Amino acid sequence: MPRGERGACGRHRAVAVCGLLGLAISGCMPVPARAGRNVSECRDIADDRERLECYDRDSRPESGVAEWPGGPGERLPENAVKESFLSQIWELDEDTRKGKYALKLHRSSYALPFTFNASPNEAAAGRAGPSADLMKPEVAFQMSVKAKLWQDIRSRPADLWICYTQRSFWQMYDFDNSSPFRETNYEPEILLNFRTGYRVLGLEGRFVSFGLNHQSNGQAEPLSRSWNRLVMNFGFERGPLSLVLKTWYRLPEPDDDDDNPGIEKYLGYGELWAYYFHGRHRFGVMVRDNLDFDSNRGAVQLEWVFPLIFDNIGGYVQYFGGYGESLLDYDHKVNRVGFGFVLLD
């Protein structure tokens, strides 16, 4: 028997003796769990069960409970490390970094073939003509991608990203009026993302980003809407919980060029996103408030992503209530629920 195999058998026998006799002797220490395959190798496995087993093996901590050699009671330690959601979307760890120019998802990219808006903005639609009555059922979809322009800027833990998000609301079921698009928002931004590792209130601070954000709807007056913001975002994680705090400062515009007068009174100066993972399910909530107790306005978005039979497409349920769902509706309160699909990165 080769020397390496004899050593492995010896270690397994030592573990078995320790487990059966419960001896606390100095020469009988827990053996580190076997090293799993690299995360990228696990990702390439076609069979779902084998891929999951590969991730399970790779997530076992080296300093955890000794692995039972082939026994039926083998289980994953409760403190097993799971993949970081924020690291996957911002490439914060070495095994998630893909270099420059790799295109990837930014925010959620989804299609909701059916949504129901209980309170459509009839006032805005009326300004577009007498035949612009809105239907409460409509289609909503969002595409959001980003690419890294500069990795490890000057050998520091910082990356430069360019991002683009497009969100559309389509009156597809209004066949009498040729199914027009009611509103589309275009949102390019550039972000300088710093990888961090501090702790606050039991949470791990994973990143801080700074950038410039532009958002507009590309329409002519009187339906034109646009604004520019300086943004600063913070990402935190603790186990299956991920938090992203987004803050912004609107760049001032002359009153005669302001398409969105008083938009800060409705959207405030930031929003908090929280994601909780349970198995292959993702639960999300966004809360936003203008922090004005005299004329308080805000918004909440609830979402649930659940697995389907496809690897890269999940089911998606979304609810939005409040102000600022779109630029055209920034000062109009919306209550909408939708069902559809979301892309999984």
- Spans of at least 5 consecutive residues whose pLDDT stays below 50 are 2-37, 61-81
- Output the CATH class name: Mainly Beta
> Whole-number radius of gyration?
25 Å
| Tally of domains | 1
CATH topology: Outer membrane phospholipase (ompla), Chain C
Overall 3D form: globular
Q: What is the correct CATH architecture?
A: Beta Barrel
Q: Given the helix and strand composition, which structural class is it? A: mainly beta
User: Reading side by side through the largest sheet, how are the strands ordered?
Assistant: 2-3-4-5-6-7-8-9-10-11-12-13
Proportion of beta-strand residues: 35-45%
Overall average residue pLDDT: 82
- Alpha-carbon distance between the two ends: 45 Å
List keywords for this structure.
single chain, 345 residues, mainly beta, Outer membrane phospholipase (ompla), Chain C, twelve-stranded antiparallel barrel, 13 strands, 14% helix
Task: Chart the SSEs and their pairings.
Layout lengths: L2 H19 L17 H5 L4 H11 L26 H6 L12 E3 L4 E8 L4 H5 L10 E14 L7 E13 L10 E20 L2 E14 L9 E13 L2 E10 L13 H4 L2 E9 L2 E9 L8 E10 L5 E10 L11 E10 L2
Antiparallel strand pairs: 1-3, 2-3, 2-13, 3-4, 4-5, 5-6, 6-7, 7-8, 8-9, 9-10, 10-11, 11-12, 12-13
Characterise the protein shown here.
The chain has helices at residues 3-21, 39-43, 48-58, 85-90, 122-126, 264-267, and strands at 103-105, 110-117, 137-150, 158-170, 181-200, 203-216, 226-238, 241-250, 270-278, 281-289, 298-307, 313-322, 334-343. The protein has a twelve-stranded antiparallel beta barrel. The two termini are 45 Å apart. It is mainly beta. The protein is globular and about 55 Å long. The chain has one domain (88-343): Beta Barrel (Outer membrane phospholipase (ompla), Chain C). The chain has six helices and 13 strands.
